[in-house]
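Recall that a protein's primary structure is simply its ordered list of amino acids. Everything else, from secondary elements to tertiary packing, is in principle encoded there. The following example makes that idea concrete.
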Amino acid sequence: MQQRLKRAGVATAALLLLLLVMTGANTWRQWAGLTVAPDTPAERRAQLEPFWRVRPPALGAPETGGAVVLSGCDGVHDNMDFWAGRLAGRGYRTLILDSHGPRGLDRFEAWRLVCAGQALPGAERAGDLAVALADPALPPGGRVVLGASHGGWATMEFLRLAVTGEVSPALRDWPAPPAQLLRDLEAVILLYPYCGLLNGADAGDWTGAPPILMVLAAEDRIVSTPDCESMAARLRERGARVAVEVLPDADHGFDQQDRATFSALRFDAGLRDRAAAAIDAFLSAAK
């Protein structure tokens, strides 16, 4: 009996060690920017387009350009519709970019791998954003990007890739010249983005990047607000124009009503309204 228990314990320990090694190796792969089988821009668009939704400008609002919104690591939820509606109200034809559905990350809570940094790192997802921004579904004119949480990380990685000219590790080439994509961008909004160790945005010359607004949660339990404040300061040293708005008493995902079971995070309509007011003022000034 003792021998069987001992063998079972050894097997369990070996399995745990294997899982730790696999997790560590995968985390290193994400950090190093290594992915497999990069797509052409056309191939990536063919994967994404059936899953994205385009919201036209609100009735009576003159069309002023295009926008792309990117969700957090748990996929597209009600907050993306809310922000798309706000942008549509300002005249933007807004594309809600779903990076999860095309990869099957919306099934069996596979999105948790994204939240843990084990799947779809920011630099890889930045390729999705590049393809969306170059797509004819968006009209000519100024472009706006709004990324929440993981979507904010992907947006920052997109900007870093664009200012350096590097290609997303998930793409074989840019879908349009990166300098042109930058020129078309008039504003970027980052809602409680991930700014930790795996975020590689702190590189290159950001003087050609668009104005950026970070809306951070003072009591964020998921990502580090101080990390984002430090990131903003470092990017300013690189020439970026970054404004930071920290919402007191706010926690991560305060704008999202739809939650996973047992989530401790809570929707707060008042905080969402405060964020919306800050974003409206920022967009008006960026025009």
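The chain has one domain: 33-286. Residues 27 and 117 are 7 Å apart (CA to CA).
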